Amino acid sequence: MSTLKLHTLETAPEEGKDLLQKSQNAYGYIPNLHAVLAGAPGLLNAYQNLHELFVNSSFNNDELTVVWQTINVAHECHYCVPAHTAIAHSMKVDNEIIEALRNSTKLPSEKLQVLHETTLSVVRNRGYISKEEVEVFYAAGYEERQLLEIILGLSQKVISNYVNHIAATPIDPSFQKFAWKKENEIA
Predict the structure, then answer these.
(1) Which of 48, 54, 70, 149 could be stapled to 119 by a disulfide with Cβ–Cβ 3.0 to 4.6 Å?
(2) Is the pTM of this model over 0.90?
(3) Which residues, including other chains, have CB under 8 Å from residue 175's CB and lie 6 or more apart?
(4) Which residue, among 33, 17, 59, 20, has the nearest Cα to 169 in the 3D structure?
């Protein structure tokens, strides 16, 4: 049971109604995360904007998924791991990538593995990553822009992951088949 209110178009604060309508239009329903975020319309607005900015970053669908799921798994988010599993499937991300991220196993390409390890280091070390880690990231074919865009993705995920922890946000029916529980430590 959620510990915070799941808002509807009728119950949301006035400033949040248009934002919830935007979610309804985009997804065909209001995801429970958005229903919770609507309790603070500025937070829902920030989340929606960060999502759009990150989706339009320089990362491709595989890389977006690596950043999102690395953070979701590191934060042990019961809601976002299944949600982003469904999203990854809809984005045509290879199942081997999806399962490696969910199960904390090695990714199928060295470049994606480096992106995963760099993202994980940013999360675990609160941005204090070593010069050597940055050099490995650049040697894998990434640039400064992508290093900064990891922080953009992290900004979005901090909002969703932390709110889901506080709210115990119920998993939407469309994500339930991808339910997830942390089994082992991230590689």
Answers:
(1) 70
(2) yes
(3) 79, 82, 83, 85, 86
(4) 33
Which residue from 177, 171, 144, 153 is spatially nearest to 77, judged by alpha carbons?
Answer: 171
Q: Which residues contact 144 (CB under 8 A, 6 or more apart)?
A: none
CB 70 within 8 A of CB 120: yes
Sign of the CA dihedral with 90 first, then 31, 70, and 56 last: positive
Read off the pLDDT of residues 66-107 as tens digits, 9 standing for 90 and up: 999 999 999 999 999 999 999 999 999 999 999 999 999 999
Would you state the structure tokens that stand for residue 152, as one six-digit string?
A: 């953009």
Q: Do the beta carbons of residue 150 and residue 123 sit within 8 Å?
A: no
Helical spans, DSSP H, in the chain: 14-27, 32-37, 41-55, 61-74, 80-90, 95-103, 110-124, 131-139, 144-167
